[in-house]
Amino acid sequence: MSAEEDTANQGRLLARVHGPQDVKRMSGTELDNLAAEIRDFLVAKVSRTGGHIGPNLGVVELTLALHRVFDSPRDRLLFDTGHQAYVHKIITGRQAGFDQLRQRGGLSGYPSQAESEHDIIENSHASTALSYADGLAKAYALRGEARSVVALVGDGALTGGMCWEALNNIAAAGNPLVIVVNDNGRSYAPTIGGLADHLSTLRLNPGYEKVLDAVKDALGSTPLVGKPMYEVLHAVKRGIKDAVAPQAMFEDLGIKYVGPVDGHDVAAVETALRAAKNFGGPVIVHAVTRKGYGYRPAEEDEADCLHGPGGAFDVETGQLVAAPAVKWTHVFADELVAIADERPDVVGITAAMAEPTGIAKLARKYPERTYDVGIAEQHAATSAAGLALGGLHPVVAVYATFLNRAFDQVLLDVAMHKLPVTFVLDRAGITGPDGPSHYGIWDMSVFGVVPGLRIAAPRDAATLREELREAVAVDDGPTVVRFPTGAVAADLPAVRRVGTVDVLTESARTDVLLVAVGSFGQLGMEVAARVAEQGYGVTVVDPRWVRPVPAELVELAAGHRLVVTVEDGVRIGGVGDALAQAMRDADVQVPLRDLGVPADWHPHGSRNQILADLGLTAQDVARDVTGWISRLDTQTVDALPLPNNTPTHN
Ligand SMILES: Cc1ncc(C[n+]2csc(CCOP(=O)(O)OP(=O)(O)O)c2C)c(N)n1
Questions:
Q1: Which of 328, 451, 477, 323 is nearest to 393 (CA)?
Q2: C-alpha angle 101/74/35, rounded to 5°?
């Protein structure tokens, strides 16, 4: 085929795909070409928006095969974690949405019921799909409905305990159900643990290695993405099944095992899936894939196979387009290493996210003092408790949204034992493009009720370093240090410190005490300037440690006419709520208004867009504050109007 014909044909098959039926009708050759077109499409689109490119490139053939063998949405296709559902979205008629992927009002980066009847579960937290599948299969058995239930789960997600609880139940129930294990050997980084080792014996098999080497050699001489490479890959894809030995492990669980199958061979996957579909009981189909398959910058990215670039990237190199910024994560990572240099008892824990949380930096310097526990936040917390019992001070670095999983472990296993464990919560508050389940807005409320747990919310790099040091100096209970996503805020020095509370600005008049939590320090300064223009004096404070509520904060509140709190977390049980209670307990009668995130499901978009939607900009807050303080002279407290974003059900 000439180059012109090739260009003319680009996207030809993809344009015919409006739903699963269109894929079912295609021939083997067409499917191979379609897979190539899908990869071109994914790279072209995701390179503009950012998103989970590596995982999706790895499941193109798997997803095509799933939609050919099963009849979605009647048959239920469940995607564990959900970050690898882009191909499913393409097949189910959502190609047009990819220009707006993860943008406000655009396509979600995860399955979304609102988008399609083909999306059954809305997720983003790993290791849940097998439990959903267990329940669905039981429900259809009880209701006498003949529908297939299929869950696609990665080897990374399989390190999560919920998967093993589910497998135990699935085996016991014996209902028909298909579990497709997408085994690419990686979470972000290579998957760790006994299970991973077991699976990797397969990948280390010399026969399999030979195939991979041939693929790698071929990549050097082919264009980045596209059809020619697929022809080469096809040529080397022979014999993969014969080259490797089946694994007994899954059958030991009492679940039928099919595989290993080459996950990039649609026909081979289809054969396995059809066998599994007709088996009449639970079956695991073990598919071996390569993360980032077919796109050289992803395949060759040692760190995480381009797991999920946060923004636009260069197609040739896979490098992010945006100028690199110093992020909160970097400040934490550097300071942790500095602390570890001084304190041999300080160790780090990550739950399969060493690079994204910055723990990787510690691991590079002190590999023997760093533990990657897999996608196992609950285990991370209690294992940290064990480390602390053993005389160490663990620093557990997780995204704020994922620590929700480990509430009971933090409460009882760590806090009740008064153990010195520091939880560092990255991506706290409104995060943005990953949507509702990735927002780190619950931590201050949920963990605020844990007795003896101290929570710090630094406002800039300097206070992050300082509060991290204060946290690891605590030896009689757990601490949390939480900070948001993105570039770290410019340093904002305090004018003075009262107890643990930093006063950021004050004036001769003490009308309003504005409690700016964490990264809202700068917003607080802007609000004070705007409100000052209306003739009111605002004292802006950063409590630094928000739990327990500092006694000095209550004293400061007593010296003002109005207290306003602003925080990057849910209002119910948040810092405002806690301060109001502390003021009631101290019989401080000053009215308080709390601004924060309503307890609701907030859509994806940029952090700034979502904060603006919630009325959490300097302009909005200044308007609220001015309105409240100006009415105070004439109205009673109860008559103070609600802020813009206060839903009535709160
Ligand atoms: C509870 C939880 N912890 C951490 C994460 C972050 N995370 C997203 S994808 C991922 C790796 C998943 O690996 P795997 O299931 O093998 O899928 P792959 O990306 O390799 O296709 C992790 C750790 C998460 N989504 N949920």
A1: 477
A2: 45
Residue 464's Cα: distance from chain center in Å?
22
Distance between Cα 422 and ligand 1 center (Å)? 23
Ligand 1 interacting residues, C-beta cut-off 6 A: 55, 58, 81, 83-84, 124-126, 154-157, 182, 184, 186-188, 291, 307, 351-353, 375, 377, 402, 405
Contacts of residue 79, defined as CB under 8 A and 6 or more positions apart, other chains included, come to: 85, 88, 111, 121, 123, 129, 151, 152
* pLDDT of 191: 74
Among candidate residues 270, 299, 335, 377, the one labeled active-site is 377
Judge whether residue 185 has pLDDT over 50: yes
b/e per residue, 1-17, with b = 16+ CB within 10 A?
Answer: eeeeeeeeebeebbeeb
Angle among Cα 336, 339, 343 to the nearest 5 degrees reads: 130
Give catalytic status of residue 227 as yes or no: no
pLDDT for residue 643: 58
Residue type, 16: R
Secondary structure of residue 502 in the 3-state scheme: strand
At 123 the pLDDT is 87
Taking 90 as the threshold, does the pLDDT of residue 3 lie above it? Answer: no
Mark 186-195 as b/e (b = at least 16 C-beta within 10 Å): bbbbbbbbeb
Q: Give residue for tokens 């939609």.
A: 67
Q: Looking at this protein, which amino acid is placed at residue 141? A: A
Question: For residues 204 and 13, what is the distance between their CA atoms, to the nearest angstrom?
Answer: 36
Closest by CA position to 298, among listed 563, 54, 571: 54
Q: How far apart are CA 149 and CA 334, in angstroms?
A: 46
Say if residue 382's pLDDT is above 80: yes
pLDDT in tens, 386-404: 999 999 999 999 999 999 9
Mutate to test the pocket of ligand 1, among 87, 130, 184, 187 (most ligand atoms within 8 A of CB): 187
Q: Where are the beta strands (DSSP E) in 35-140?
A: 76-79
Token output for 19? 């739903």
User: What confidence category does residue 451 fall into, taking pLDDT thresholds of 50, 70 and 90?
Assistant: very high
Q: From the CA of 191, how far away is ligand 1's center (Å)?
A: 10
Question: What is the DSSP-derived secondary structure letter of residue 519?
Answer: G
Q: pLDDT per residue over 138-170, tens digit each?
A: 999 999 999 999 999 999 999 999 999 999 999
Nearest to 542 by CA among 568, 562, 524, 558: 524
Three-state DSSP at 415 gives: helix
What's this model's pTM, rounded to 2 decimal places?
0.90
Banded model confidence at residue 209, pLDDT cuts 50, 70, 90: very low
Query: Does the pLDDT of residue 199 top 90, yes or no?
Result: no
Predicted confidence at residue 599, as pLDDT, reads 95
C-alpha 90 – ligand 1 centre gap (Å): 21
Q: Between helices 60-69 and 266-277, what is the axis angle to 10°?
A: 40
Q: Where are the alpha helices (DSSP H) in 534-574?
A: 551-558
Q: How far apart are the first and last CA of the chain?
A: 64
Report the pLDDT averaged over residues 89-103. Answer: 97
Whether 45 is a known active-site residue: answer no
Mean pLDDT score across all residues of the chain:
89
